[in-house]
Structures
1.
Amino acid sequence: MSMDYVMEPFKIKMVEMLKQTTREERIEFLKQARYNMFSIRSENIAIDMQTDSGTGAMSDRQWAAMMTADESYGGARGFYEVEAAVQDIFGYKYAQPVHQGRAAEKVLFGCLMGPDDIAIANQFFDTTQGHIVMTGARPLNCVCDEAADIYLDAPFKGNMDTEKLEALINEKGADRVKMIMMTITNNSAGGQPVSMANIRETSRIAKKYGIIFVIDAARYAENAYFIKTREEGYQDKSIGEIVKECFGYADAFSMSAKKDTIVNMGGCIGVREDEDLITKVRMRTIPLEGFINYGGLSGRDIAALAVGFYEGINESFLKYRIGQVQYLGELLHDAGVPIQYPVGGHGIYIDCGVMMPHLSWDQFPAQAVSAALYIEGGIRGGDLGSLSLDRDPDTNEQQKALNEFCRLCVPRRVLTQSQIEFVARTIIYVRDHAAEYPGYRILKETPLLRHFTVDLEPLSPIK
Ligand code: F0G
């Protein structure tokens, strides 16, 4: 094993017992859920890896802060704590808490763009893309070519293709482009990081054309850790220094705090210095989220958020966090399981088209792997392949994904090393018995985001 694994930098103070289920019971639970991974009751799941969002374990300090939080409407203390943390960590003058990442998108994008405008990112996350479309603007992705080669060993596969970005701005007209966004890490490309050099160059282009540069900061601390360990010149910098430099290149951020800021619910908008922009943000926050001092959260949530900002950038935490995901990646890679490699920051992506060679793409191999992992190990991952793509709105044809990925996210501070090893063993077992698992067909679907509610059926009985 090539990586330097570190032990958990915490001890466990409170536990949640897992219900024990048998293989036969899990086959039945899956059937009751109409083979939709979202519909399985979570009490029947042993290791839930559907997302790393809002699923982290809060610390004793976060819980303590919740107990002493201020639930006032105006002037609530938590707001000032969040504002101070944002000023201290990011060097931004203004902070606006909101209830989660998509709320930050809804509030911020309405200040920046409207019909016929364009927004460009390395890659937009689905809700981010959705909120751009809802303003009437068009989202365009501009990720580097390395992102598409899932086995290519490159350090920063989440980068923006900056040449393509500049060409796009010139083609579309700079005055139509109302935002350039950098998603760090790049979730849609497997949680792959973005380099400081790439953020700097993107910022230069944004300034040259007078376009606002916004960071989607959901996994900014993981990205900073990758910069520290992979980019020349950053080894001796602290995570705090890297975060400050990185955000210094941008004008604003929109953040889901449910990831790197380790809260179960929360989000934030940060504005570096533009007073007009924060005024607009606050004006929209009041009707959409709630008064600016609570932004759609309880005082308890905000108190936990203020503490989480600091815990998320703690270097020994990040070393363990990224190390745990890499440890899982190395176990699978050494066993020859086809995964995106090197692994990103928050989970592993199994290349199920390769793992299930007996299934064609329209038999949903990533759904087949997700179902098999649940049956064999009570593990929940999710299809990020063709099942999660809606039909072409014009032709009604089933669309084919670039990769049939099953995504298994690692929640923060939740799983022990032996649970990670159990996950690896279960995946390897499913790979070794791949031919025994059936593909799936759709029984019922909606035209939009169908994978959340789809009813499915296996093509042959599960053995
Ligand atoms: N931006 C990124 C990069 C995200 O990964 C997410 C959420 C959001 C914005 C939206 O934030 O959920 O707080 O409203 N990603 C989750 C995931 C849902 O599973 O990857 P939210």
Note: The chain has two domains: 23-52+315-458, 60-311.
2.
Amino acid sequence: MRRPIFTVLLSLAALLLASASEGASFPAVRGGGGAVASAEEASTEVGLEILRAGGNAVDAAVATALALAVVHPQAGNLGGGGFAVVRMNDQLMSLDFREVAPAAATRDMYLDDEGRPWKDASSIGPLAAGVPGSPVGLYELHQRFGALPWPRILRPARQLASEGFVVTTRLYDSLVEEQERLERFPETAAVWLPDGRPPAVGSRMRLSALARTLEAYAEQGPRALTEGPIAEAIERASAAHGGVLRVSDLQSYEAVWRPPLEFEAFGWKMAAMDLPAAGGIIVAQNLSLLESLGWGELPRFGADRAHLLAEVWRRSYADRFLMGDPRSSEVDSKGLLAPEWLAYRRSTIQRDKASLSADIARFPESPPAESPDTTHVAVADAVGNLVTLTTTLNYTFGCRLMVPEAGFFLNNEMDDFAAAPGRPNLYGLVQGEANAVRPGHRMLSSMTPILAWRGEEAVALGGRGGSRIPTAIAQVLLHLLVDGDPLQAAVDRPRLHHQWLPDVLRAEADALSPETVEELSSRGHEVGIWTKDAKVNAVRMLEDGNFEAAADPRGPGSAGVVDPIQ
Ligand code: DON
């Protein structure tokens, strides 16, 4: 009964989107001296400026991330966290600067006396904030791999904050959309809603408190934010609105260097972030399974490929239920990528019939071998060093509380824990005990910063979009590595998404033809329209030594190269 309605809706939506998105894609950019892609033009410019000034990929990525903390306060941050995977001088490394639960956090802190989620405590206000990881993380990344002096890396962001930057339509729109929640905090409203409304598009925004924070950060490193007056201001602002963040939490925060998750698929080598980021494992499982299922040989358009995508995603997101901080995760990447486990998962996939997510959820089989568990920046420099860095406050403007003296927002990353185990979070993800709130633990993430290379060719990519990030990254990689799309086309192509629960295959409006929807429905898939897919940023080094950069028109974002070919 559902099928004809969906088919009609999809066709209508496809028509609408086709007309709305004409010309939405960015022109491809290509150059010889490196490349940067990020969410905003001003931040991409900063990355390019650092490359031109002789900085390496890490210098440029950190400077870009700091610029995002100024011009893209919806996600760019000092009050959040993230992950980075780097290839520097042929060394692969990944840095986990994910937030952790404060020492005073408890398993049931977001539940009322009857065990029900307690209003929006895990998403709005400072009780939703994890201990920020960015101040330590960005510094640590630069300390280990950067070439230019730290204050030089900070300079562009400081200038943007003190001299001002232009309010974009996107920033204005985000402020309008979030106005009601931002208004709950007078500290936030004083800066971002002067006279009770967002600053006008095109007006110049100066953030003097943030400029002072960046100055202190430039002079003293992360200690300027993790102890002393700024840390005390964070504790004060948090406590004033019922939060539990303490200076001691900030002081004890540590970023962790982890071996990247390395794997191969379709003739390419890849390096991703391991737990507590789930995205790398999901993409590794997806690509390994699809390769062994002969996905690349199937017709590019049509139901067969979409069916298999849905089936492998369904299984990987079911595995995600068992993931969490490496200390509490019930599974790890080794077990989840073990040939036996992948073979078992493959053996349960039928080519002509959709599985039911509910069946997969039960885990009738013993779990795999256990041990005992958004904004994106992509940079390549002229000598082929690569950085893929995703950083986030979680939701737009995080918990919406801006610490007045510090000048930045606190995250609401605590919602990425299974704040109410068994119930969907902001991204509809149903998560398990392994990801319950535990003090000092990192909340499971879907972020998927990843590098892929074959010979001299290499790509660095990642995205924003919560649970939709891993499926978007898997598809962009498939477009690039299997179908040989140019970078921008691979990012632009309409996408699909399935995350186990809810048991629906989501399709961007022009991703599937009505006939394909019919065919998928007849195999048992429920197909739904999806307008909110992830936003991917990517850079690529080509065999001829040139570079490409691509930002997602869904973002929008900004891509640039050094020395464009005339
Ligand atoms: O770590 C995660 O999975 C989420 N906090 C990411 C948030 C995100 O991508 C927001 N973008 N829409």
Note: Residues 1-23, 362-373 have pLDDT under 50 and may be disordered.
